[in-house]
Amino acid sequence: MKRYLVAPSLLAADFTNLHKEITMLNESEADWLHFDVMDGRFVPNISFGLPVCKAIKSISKKPIDVHLMIVEPEKYLKAFREAGADSISVHIEACPHLHRVIAEIKELGCLAGVAINPHTAIDLLVPILPDIDFVNIMTVNPGFGGQKFIQSSLIKIRKLRALANELNPELHIEVDGGVDLSNIEAIKEAGANIFVAGSAVFKAENPKTVIQKLKTGS
Ligand code: DX5
Ligand code: ZN
Fold first, then answer.
1. DSSP string covering 77-145, please?
2. Which one in 10, 71, 181, 205 has a CA-CA gap of 20 to 30 Å to 146?
3. What are phi and psi of 96, to 5 degrees?
């Protein structure tokens, strides 16, 4: 069975205290730091970008997982790599030439991921599955933190795990949106192994304990 990885999403952090939040993550069992980039075009919201990524990289002991919720992501791959990205996911809905974009991410030395919106059929990933390191299954509509997990996503996760067993057994399945302690067991059972969690971690009284529980379930 695949190793479970927890990737807290910085979007829910206290931006007036970013240094403190990153220190907390450094001391926690978090595996990756999930960094949500929004452009106000692909999604109806704007978050943060390159200078913030670079600043965080300078103090983070965890790899930076950049989730590009932007149109024309190919324009910014190199810049995000230089700003510290260790893995990059781009949306299938934003890439008419997905195969080329994935090749570029890998050439830059990053893990390559494809993110997929809740309404997009999982079968569309079949041609690209052998070429990627992970899929980011969006379990809310991208653009905002703190939304409710879409239950039907569990079917998509299960279906993707079955396809991956056939086409790319090494594939990681990341889930992103509304992940918390109430649904983590079902998510694991469906076959995902990377858990992005924003609100569940940063709004908790004890974030480090939540990170540990998401991972081990104890
Ligand atoms: C949503 C982002 C998520 C978000 C998750 O567009 O991609 O990474 O920050 O936040 P929660 O865990 O609060 O749903
Ligand atoms: Zn995300």
1. HHHHHHTTEEEEEEEGGG-TTHHHHHHHHHHTT-EEEEEE-TTS-GGGGTTTGGG-SEEEEESS-TT-S
2. 71
3. -65, -20
Q: What would the pLDDT profile of 132-145 be if each residue is shown by its tens digit?
A: 999 999 999 999 99
**What is the spatial distance between Cα 15 and Cα 202, in angstroms, rounded to a whole number?**
11
Atom of ligand 1 lying closest to residue 11 CA: 9
Range of the domain at 19: 5-216
Considering its fold, how many domains does the chain have in total?
A: 1
Q: Can 36 be counted among the known catalytic residues? A: yes
Give yes or no for residue 140 CB within 6 A of ligand 1: yes
Instruction: Give which of 63, 50, 51 is closest to 22, Cα–Cα.
Output: 63
Does the Cβ of 147 fall within 6 Å of ligand 1? yes
Domain of 172, CATH number, reads: 3.20.20.70
91 lines ligand 1 (CB under 6 A): no
